[in-house]
Amino acid sequence: MFHISLSALFTCCVTLILVQWTESKYLEYVTCGSVTKLYNVDLKVRLHSHDVKYGAGSGQQSVTGTEVSEDINSHWEIKPATGKLCKRGEPIKCGTIIRFTHLTTKKNLHSHLFSSPLSNNQEVSAYGNDGEGDSGDHWYVDCGGDYWERDDDIRLKHVDTGAYLMTSTFSYGRPINGQREIAAAQRGPYHSCKLGRYF
């Protein structure tokens, strides 16, 4: 009797250890459904948006870079490409095509062949309604390993145009005074995740 109880206890302990190891293994990854702040490693600004439209170009909602760390308008939810599914909490593989939905306005990080307003690179905007847009919302995760790890520096390549998400050295005046221009270009800097809610 004692032998059976000891065996059952051992099996239970091994199972618990394996479950904890599996869960902790995924804690290091950026996952589908997570909400994060994308941080430009070189210029130290966070990807940001708000209900302010560009005055030229597409006229869509503007996307900027802000140095302010505590700003609710810098939160972006990671979603699968249009028409694809991913389970909440599933690690994002390097090379995956994803979307970023702005948590406050429900518009997607977007690009197209309009010129950006300050640097004359490629415009980056927030587009769509309630998280639904088009193929211009798709970004390729360019990272070095098998999965996008939380402490990785990654690049984001726009699928439709092949340009990389970048922050220019130009800053806006009113009504978004001091915020940096976000654009896309043939060479892009690295971004990392700062803070966020991961599943």
From TrEMBL:
Q: Which UniProt keywords apply?
A: Repeat, Signal
Looking at the record's lineage, which domain of life comes first?
A: Eukaryota
Q: Does the keyword Signal apply?
A: yes
Every copy of the MIR domain together lies at 27-81, 89-144
Q: Does the keyword field hold Repeat?
A: yes
Q: Which residues form the signal peptide?
A: 1-24
Give TM segment ranges: none
Protein name, please? MIR domain-containing protein
